[in-house]
Write a structure and sequence with these properties.
This protein is an alpha+beta fold and 227 residues long. The chain has 6 helices and 11 strands. The chain folds into 2 domains: 173 residues, no CATH class; 39 residues, no CATH class.
Length: 227
C-alpha cells in the first residue's frame, strides 16, 4: 500500500498550483550526497515515519459484497497507518524554494480528504476515504531537527505531510449463501403407501411480513415496538 500512497502523493504534488511547472518529485532521503547530485528544481517527499493510528482500530468483521450486493466474504476491518512525509523544495535560490513550498501548500490545503475514486489499485478497492493533513502540529516521536541530524544535512524549511491510509487485514472468510427458502418438514405415516406431506416453515419473507404487521399493530395500540 505504501507505494500506492507514493503514487497518489506524486500526482497531488504534480497538479494544482504546480501543474505544468515541470518540477521533479523525488522520494529519496535528502542527504548531502543526494543534494549534491540534484541538478534541477525538485520537490522532495521523504517518508520518515510509519505508525498505526490506534484510534481508528476497529473490531469485528466487515462484509464483502459482490455485484449483486450479496455478501460473499467477511474480513477483519482494515488497519490505518499514518505515513509521515517531510516535504522540502530544492532550487539554487532560497526565495525560489519558498515559492515552491507556497505552491505545495496551495495545492495540498484544499485536499483534506481523498475519495476512493482518486486512489489506485488495492487502496481504491477498499472504498474508503483517505484523510490528508499538511503542516499540522508535530505529533511524532522525533522532531524535525532530529530528522535532519540523522540525514546528515542542514536544517531547512519543510512541510510535514501526513496521509492516513487503510491497510487490509487478513485473512478473509467465505460467507454462506443467502437464505432464499425456509426449512421444510416432511411427515410420513406408518403406511408406506401414503403420500409424504411437506410443510414449509420459517419462510423468511412471510416471517418478516408477519413481524412487521405485529409492530404496526402494537404502535397503533400504543404498546410500543415489538420485541
Amino acid at each position: 500500500m505504501i507505494h500506492e500512497v507514493d503514487e497518489v502523493l506524486k500526482g497531488l504534488l504534480g497538479g494544482g498550483a504546480l501543474a505544468g511547472s515541470g518540477i521533479d518529485v523525488a522520494f529519496d532521503a535528502p542527504t548531502r550526497d543526494w543534494a549534491a547530485r540534484r541538478n534541477s528544481p525538485t520537490i522532495n517527499a521523504y517518508l520518515y515515519d510509519i505508525r498505526e493510528d490506534i484510534n481508528r482500530r476497529q473490531r469485528g468483521h466487515v462484509p464483502v459484497h459482490d455485484e449483486r450486493d450479496v455478501v460473499v466474504k467477511r474480513r477483519q476491518p482494515p488497519r490505518w497507518f499514518r505515513l509521515s512525509y517531510l516535504l522540502t523544495a530544492w532550487t539554487k535560490q532560497p526565495q525560489d524554494e519558498h515559492r515552491l513550498l507556497s505552491a505545495v501548500l496551495a495545492t495540498l490545503i484544499p485536499r483534506e480528504l481523498l475519495a476512493p475514486s482518486e486512489l489506485p489499485g488495492a487502496l481504491g478497492e477498499l472504498g474508503l476515504t483517505v484523510p490528508v493533513s499538511v503542516a499540522g502540529i508535530q505529533t511524532e516521536a522525533r522532531s524535525m531537527a532530529e530528522i535532519w541530524t540523522a540525514l546528515g544535512g542542514e536544517l531547512k524549511p519543510s512541510l510535514d505531510l501526513v496521509i492516513t491510509a487503510p491497510f487490509p487485514a487478513y485473512p478473509e472468510y467465505d460467507a454462506g449463501p443467502p437464505v432464499t427458502e425456509g426449512a421444510a418438514v416432511r411427515v410420513r405415516t406408518g403406511d408406506e403407501t401414503a403420500p409424504v406431506t411437506e410443510e414449509r416453515a420459517h419462510r423468511p419473507a412471510q416471517v418478516e411480513a408477519a413481524r412487521s404487521a405485529r409492530r404496526i399493530a402494537r404502535r397503533e395500540r400504543g404498546a410500543g415496538p415489538a420485541e
